């Protein structure tokens, strides 16, 4: 892209991303807990509280994987309003194995696999061709945009499918600028994560890819500017650092 962050060949990246998530689908949820010490749950809870959906919110959760954001969305609406009303979420992911795990989890979480409130759809964030313009009230993408080859295309599509007034929200790894914390984070990333990947999933490579993809993703202010360039109104600094910037919550509105 013209933002200059891509270093690997595009096709190579796409097939690698495919393999990584096909390999890890079954262990994906466990690995998230192990590698973040459960903190990803707090980030995701905070993400949904910030979105503060209502019983009329129609959400598209892109790169939705095994449904972490979707279930939190539904739980939030149910708890805050005593029912789901017309709230609905479409979970879209390029990888059918991730969605299959998500569908199984729906039952465990007290939701039917497919209903008026939740549906699952295979698709590419870069090209949401089957979705008409101005369809959704909210668009979320959590730990997914980093894996996409053309971030600018993802943002353009997000802008297109949102209704005017709709909100784009992204949760993604960021850069840690705090000294000492950033050194600790480096050790954690380059030593501990690949070791856990090897021990638990017998797959060091996938987790090395994970760390590299985090390092290559643009820093928070640069990504904020990309969101703005896609046409979104960005309010204030445009993002919120979580855990020293290990993760960051970005947001923009379609006018
Ligand atoms: N959002 C979920 C969460 O927070 O637990 C899943 C995040 S997981 C780290 C990244 C997901 O992005 C994977 O399920 C992967 O299949 C999906 N993905 C990667 N490239 C994609 C693309 N171009 N379009 C849609 N999904 C994609």
From TrEMBL:
S-adenosyl-L-methionine binds at residues 66, 93, 124-125. One of its GO terms (molecular function) is 2-methoxy-6-polyprenyl-1,4-benzoquinol methyltransferase activity. It holds the Pfam family Ubie_methyltran. It catalyses: a 2-methoxy-6-(all-trans-polyprenyl)benzene-1,4-diol + S-adenosyl-L-methionine = a 5-methoxy-2-methyl-3-(all-trans-polyprenyl)benzene-1,4-diol + S-adenosyl-L-homocysteine + H(+). Keywords: Membrane, Methyltransferase, Mitochondrion, Mitochondrion inner membrane, S-adenosyl-L-methionine, Transferase, Ubiquinone, Ubiquinone biosynthesis. It is a peripheral membrane protein. One of its GO terms (cellular component) is extrinsic component of mitochondrial inner membrane. GO terms for biological process: aerobic respiration; methylation. InterPro entries: SAM-dependent_MTases_sf (IPR029063), UbiE/COQ5_MeTrFase (IPR004033), UbiE/COQ5_MeTrFase_CS (IPR023576). Its EC number is 2.1.1.201. It is found in: Mitochondrion inner membrane. Belongs to the class I-like SAM-binding methyltransferase superfamily. MenG/UbiE family. Component of a multi-subunit COQ enzyme complex, composed of at least COQ3, COQ4, COQ5, COQ6, COQ7 and COQ9. Interacts with PYURF; the interaction is direct, stabilizes COQ5 protein and associates PYURF with COQ enzyme complex. Methyltransferase required for the conversion of 2-polyprenyl-6-methoxy-1,4-benzoquinol (DDMQH2) to 2-polyprenyl-3-methyl-6-methoxy-1,4-benzoquinol (DMQH2). PANTHER family: 2-METHOXY-6-POLYPRENYL-1,4-BENZOQUINOL METHYLASE, MITOCHONDRIAL, METHYLTRANSFERASE. This is 2-methoxy-6-polyprenyl-1,4-benzoquinol methylase, mitochondrial. It comes from Gonapodya prolifera (strain JEL478) (Monoblepharis prolifera). The gene is COQ5.
